[in-house]
Every structure is written in structure tokens, then in C-alpha cells.
Amino acid sequence: MKRILLPTDFSKDAWNAIEYALHFFKEEKCMFYILNTYTPAFYRIDYLMGGPAMSAIPDVGVDISLEGLENTLKRIEERYDNPNHTFEILSSFNTLPDEVHDISERKKLDMVVMGTQGASGAKEFFLGSNTVHVIRKAVVPVLAVPQVYEYKGIKNILMPTGYETKYKPNELKPLVDTVKRFKANLHVVHALEDYKLTDLQKDNKEHLKDIFKTLPDVVFTDSTGEYMPNIVHSYIDKNNIGLVAMMNRKHTFLGQLLLKHHVDVVGYHCQVPFLVLPDTSELPK
Questions:
Q1: Average pLDDT value over all residues in the chain
Q2: Where does the UspA domain start and stop, copy by copy (predicted)?
Q3: Pairing status of strand 185-192 against strand 156-160
Q4: Positions of the chain with pLDDT lower than 70, given as ranges
Q5: Could you give the C-alpha distances from 216 to 75, 118, 184, 275, in angstroms and in order?
Q6: Residue 155: CB partners within 8 Å, gap ≥ 6?
Q7: Residues β-bridged to residue 114
Q8: Cα 253–148–189 angle (5° rounding)?
Q9: Cα separation of 100 and 98, whole Å?
Q10: Alpha helices in 6-49 (DSSP H)
Q11: Is 51 left (phi over 0), alpha (psi -120 to 50) or beta?
């Protein structure tokens, strides 16, 4: 059984991501954890004792959080009757990135699915600050669903890569499983900045081909003349891409891409769901 975390701030964007997840995992047996985190508008001295649960003074934040979670669960049960799915609600006095990190290890999560924006998200940016911080701290895959994106099924999946390292097969397994489950075509795209691959890149490319050898429809493309973000954007439009998957090594290209002030500059406004996979492979010395 897969264990999936669904963070929510009760916004339309969060609900849209929840609906997407329920469709995405429709045929899978899943335990969904619906999470809401909250912090006070002002910090009370009694929180030093351990938060609202340890305080004798009522905290309206707890009540709002629990009521919102119960309403969300009721809404799911009314609209989606799937015997494969079970649910648990979680309310936490914490920041979202820290709580997601903690729950990922405590509940042994397989994935986090969340919206790209929250209730107060700035629409000019692809990813809201909460999503960015969750991805930075994530130890499990994070699937970010754009605002108002409706589930359509997935026929083509895009994986941009620089062939810098030998990816670990277990870290690519969520992508491989997704490709198989949807019987999708996988497109592996590399931006050739120097117009040819180095020997190291060629070796890493062969390694990646070996990992994907069980997949029937994998297309490897080396593109020249454009930077990676622009290639990704145009490739999505031209190839009916339903999901973009990227490996995320801290302090690398994706880390820079996710910084809010960089997103608008590179023109990367992804309009399809975006799967971020942790990458702990070793960099060449």
C-alpha cells in the first residue's frame, strides 16, 4: 500500500491537487494523509511548554484546522468512493516544510502531492514559497500540481537531465512505476550546451538507458541552441507532455530553478504537473 501525503491550506489550489492525487492513484491501494499545519498570528508564551496541546488555554487555530480537515475528508467521501483508498487527517502546530519532512520519515511516505500555490500565492510565479521550501527539504518525491490543472491521464512524460551523475535506480523507481502504470512514453531530454556529450555524460547516459531498459517507449533527445528551461517549455507544448519529472540535487540546476526570483527570469511557467525526485547520487570528483 502506498502512503501519500496531501498537504492542504483549504484553498482551491490545495483541493485541486487532492482531486488530482485521487485520480493519479485511482487504481492503487493508498493510505492518504491529509495534513494541515498552522502557526499563530502572534506567539503565546505558553507555547514554550510544547504547543497548544500542552496548554490549558484554548487555541482557535486548532479548531479551525480540525474543522477544515474534517470538511475536506467529508467532501472527498461524498465525491470519491474508492475502496482502494483510506484516509487519515493530521493537524500540526508547525511549519509546513518541517512537518512534511518529519511525517515523511515517521510515516514512511512514498510521495507528497500538493498544489503549486496556496491561499495567498503570488500567481506570477510557478511555485509558491511553501512548495519551494517543501521541495528543498523533501526526502521523498514531491508532485506539484499547477492551479486549475484538471486530470487528463498521462500519455507522455518528460525527464530533463544533464547526465551529470549516475542516478540511483531506487530513486528513479517512482518515475519508472508511473510510466508503466500509465503505459506512457518517456522522453529524456538533454540540452547540449557544448554541442557534444563528454565521455562522462555518455557513460551516464548509457547507465540511464540501462535503468529504463524495461520501458518499451523511451525517446532520448539531445537538443542544441537553447538553455534547458526553454527547451522544457517548448518540448511540453510540442509533445503533449502530461508530466515533467526532474531529479533534485540540492544546490544544482533544479534548486536554482525553484528559487522564486529565478523562475520568472528563465520563463519557465510549467503548466503540467511537476514530479521532483530526490537525487543523492555522487558527483564526479
A1: 82
A2: 1-146
A3: parallel
A4: 40-60, 117-129, 193-195, 224-229, 250-270, 285
A5: 39, 38, 9, 21
A6: 182, 184, 185, 240, 242
A7: 144
A8: 30
A9: 6
A10: 12-24
A11: left
Q: What is the phi/psi pair of residue 229, to 5°?
A: -55, -40
Contact (CB, 8 A) for 35 and 90: yes
Domains and CATH numbers, the chain: 2-145 (3.40.50.620), 156-246+264-270 (3.40.50.620)
What are the backbone dihedrals phi and psi of residue 264, each rounded to the nearest 5 degrees, phi first?
A: -70, -35
CA angle 187, 24, 142 (to 5 degrees): 70
Q: Where are the alpha helices (DSSP H) in the chain?
A: 12-24, 60-79, 96-106, 129-137, 169-182, 199-211, 228-238, 253-257, 260-266
Q: How far is CA 174 from the centre of its chain?
A: 12
Determine phi and psi for 2, rounding to 5 degrees: -80, 150
Q: What is the pLDDT of residues 90-127, one digit of tens each?
A: 999 888 999 999 999 999 999 999 998 644 444 433 45
Rounded to an integer, what distance in angstroms lies between the CA atom of residue 98 and that of residue 162? Answer: 30
Write the DSSP symbol of residue 57.
S
Residue-wise burial string across 103-129, b where 16 or more C-beta atoms lie within 10 A, e elsewhere = bbeebebbbbbbbbbbeebeeebbbbb
**What is the side-by-side strand order in the sheet with 142-145?**
85-93, 30-38, 2-7, 111-115, 142-145, 274-278, 243-248, 156-160, 185-192, 218-224
Residue 43, amino acid: Y
Whole-angstrom Cα distance, residue 242 to residue 118? 22
